[in-house]
Sequence to fold (226 residues):
Amino acid sequence: DIQMTQSPSSLSVSVGDRVTITCQASQDISNYLNWYQQKPGKAPKVLIFDASTLETGVPSRFSGSGSGTYFTFTISSLQPEDIATYYCQQFDNFPITFGQGTRLEIK
Amino acid sequence: QVQLQESGPGLVKPSETLSLACGVSGGSLNGHFWSWIRQPPGRGLEWIGYVYHSGSTNYNPSLESRVSISVDTSKNQFSLKVNSVTAADTAVYFCARHGAGAAIYFDSWGQGALVTVSS
Fold:
């Protein structure tokens, strides 16, 4: 299985902050990488697919980049509604695997 | 807009079979892949497997010996069975639709169903 390692596991943030989360794959996955947002008690919501393509309706403050084994997810200016846990997910090889998640907390 | 809804028992005894269904409304099963994903309390996401509208499947090897996913196009739903459950199978189980195109991502999700394995 391809292991996905996110960093950091948690992050204390303030409204307006620029937030960056990284995701490292255990082997080359090209750009086969997606990002999700999950709020407590809710299902995940896809924000970015193919490493950098914004899902329809997702605000432009969210962005993704990277290829191969190293990927980044950025929120350019954190809004209160962005407090959530974020997951990366690879689909280069089955089984599909997720990172362990990065939880954002208000400072 | 497509909506997914999980249904099934919330409590299953150890060694028995966990059974869940995912009803799809506002859209058809045809032309899409459909997955089950689970999340133990306070933990991350684990992909269980998918089914295509034709009935073809792909399972996570970690669960393959105990899992079965099937589709019922007449009812517009797909189902999950996990045999010989233990406490480690306690989780919120989500059903999800794969997005269109080559990328494998989940663009629509059910609200999730908590299944507890306990005697």
Q: What stands out?
A: The longest strand of chain B covers residues 18-25.
